[in-house]
Amino acid sequence: MFQRLSEFYDWYVEHLAAHSYEVTRTRLDRLAGWAVEPDTGNIRHDSGKFFSVQGLGVRTDHGPVEQWTQPIIDQPESGILGILVKRFHGTPHFLMQAKMEPGNINIVQLSPTVQATRSNYRRVHRGRSTPYLEYFTERGRGRVLSDVLQSEQGSWFLHKRNRNMIIEVTGDVPVLPGFCWLTREQLGELLRVDNLVNMDSRTVLAGYPITEIADTRRDDGPVDELFAAITGPTAERAPTRRESAALLSWFTEMKARYELVRWPLPLSAVTGWTSTPEEISHPSGRFFAVIGVDVKAETREVGSWSQPILVPRHRGVVAFLVKWIGGRPHLLARAHTQAGTQDVIELAPTVQCSPDNYTGSLAEHRPAYLDDVLGAEPSRVRFDSVHSEEGGRFYHAENRYLIVEVDGDFADEPAADFTWITAAQLADLARFGNYVNVEARNLLACLLFTDRTVAGTPLPAPVGTTAH
């Protein structure tokens, strides 16, 4: 446990200095253990496990584009993302891991106690076993605070879900090298630091019950009024713009109104994309590319491996507009359709896009409220951090996560497909699968954990790592 965050940073830097990591780009047709199928162009692992890169056809009546084809990652197996919680002197602490992923900016980021695909924790790679796995696979190890199958990035994954779990334990838990206990307040400060708390941690932390936060809130130190109103002891009793039953009715209507049809395609049959031994990419320079990397990481279950990985072309923006309605902050959520999700609609942030994709011929499709976010006065920006997306499948994928407060004159009746929702309502829905998308859950974690006015300390520069 760390009494001060400076102690955490010392621990983090020592961990980086003690280990070496290397990520090197390589050709897709030279990935050890992988093959480009000659008849389809799909990229698959020799074991038939882990994941594959294939093509997908999409047709929908929800959005500016009615039909398209694209590459997509197909990972049908569900992994485990789990965080252990234990109270020390009455204060909950979260067991976090300094984990290397090949796509991470800063190489090593704070991950959940367990972050493993089924192939990994079943040791298909023939490497070391996953520490602490038994707490999440054996019943009776602790009190279940959250356990739900959650979707991941629907633009890049096909039907991808992971089991998000938070388990509170009371017995002794040995702290292995590379792991540490952090309080909610410490995690809140670290969530304000760019590219430190990874996506898998953020999606799991979004499931932490608001009631647990209210019961253990510290009274010392400055508290942000907006964030405190979201997680305070009266958060679940304050009036709402739309009652929960009406909110669910609206959400169900959105799902019933729109159509989303998907069909698998050979990667070689995807139109509008270029495939070479070096990469799969869109000629416009928009969207993303698929490349290959060779990885060396002495702290992982396997010391070296190769894999394909997706590279976004631009940094994205993920933002909630927030407005005080009836004395309570409300978030502006969107009913959003993405190519790879399990269902037609998931609740998304107000804005979720890569602005650089909406130039030239695509400028007419510029998302609603994007200019309200990007043009907000600095005093209105209540949270602003850049966070990496899942580093095991995406290379240097990052989004700017924002909470932007609007004034009382902002429209009470939002545009079509949008609704005002409280953080407590969003948190309730996030305890069930296929309701709240991963980007909204990431911002929800920031809302639940960052009620202090203290800004995060910049992350020390990585040591002993290379990427090229």
From TrEMBL:
Domain dTDP-4-dehydro-6-deoxy-alpha-D-glucopyranose 2,3-dehydratase: 6-206, 245-447
UniProt superkingdom: Bacteria
Pfam families, per database record: Hexose_dehydrat (PF03559)
GO molecular function per UniProt: lyase activity
InterPro entries, alphabetized: EvaA-like (IPR005212), EvaA-like_sf (IPR038153)
Protein name per UniProt: Oxidase EvaA
Source organism: Saccharothrix saharensis
